[in-house]
TrEMBL record:
Organism of this sequence: Pseudoglutamicibacter cumminsii
Keywords: Ligase
Record protein name field: Lipoate--protein ligase
Pfam families noted in UniProt: LplA-B_cat
Domain BPL/LPL catalytic as annotated: residue spans: 28-234
One GO MF term: ligase activity
Amino acid sequence: MPEQPQHTGTLLREIPSGDPAADLDRGIELLREVAQGKRGPLLRIYRPAPTVAFGQRDTRAPGYEAAAQASRDAGFAPLIRKAGGRAMAYHPGSWVIDHIQPEKDAMLTHQHRFEHFANLFVEVFTRLGVPAAVGELPGEYCPGEYSVHGIATGESRFEKGRKVKLVGTAQRVVQGAWLFSSAVVLEETEPIAAVTESVYKAMDLELDPRTIGSAQDLVATHVTHERFIDVLLEVWGEHGYVFS
């Protein structure tokens, strides 16, 4: 049986402002408002403008400036996120999902959230007919223990069994609240693959290009954006997060 709702909050369906930096920073602004009690729990979702979100560690890499220029050359805005991780590219074929919750001792559950939300995304993709699992792929971009990857069915663009990263996550915790931000790639792999390879080469970071892909590369049926969001809200609701 589905779990009973534990949290109710506001669903923010946003349209990109035309300023990718402002769109990225808005998540942090909303986090502060939730921490200050000005807002309740939020699920903010939007299809982003072409962006390469660099982690703080990336800015210290000898090739960072060249990587940033490679992003611009490809038509992707190079931005530095305040959360952790390595560089990840996304565009309007993707979704950014910012889940923000008030919590008194938010840091205590920091690590648990990576595992928890990874498993929720696996549920989402499974219901969409996309085989998925949790676990880092060798040579993946923005590597992490709780990365979510999909597995090609063999009736798709990719050969059967090929594994590609589908969800990149980052987290920001402040006193009284947390932000769990996820970038999900649904379609249009080519621009993301090209800019990711250029950026990682510039910074001399390990990358296996075969781990780059989208949900649409893995199955024969069309995974629509509308269906993805419907299923995401369904799964979140069954795990106690109801947003409307």
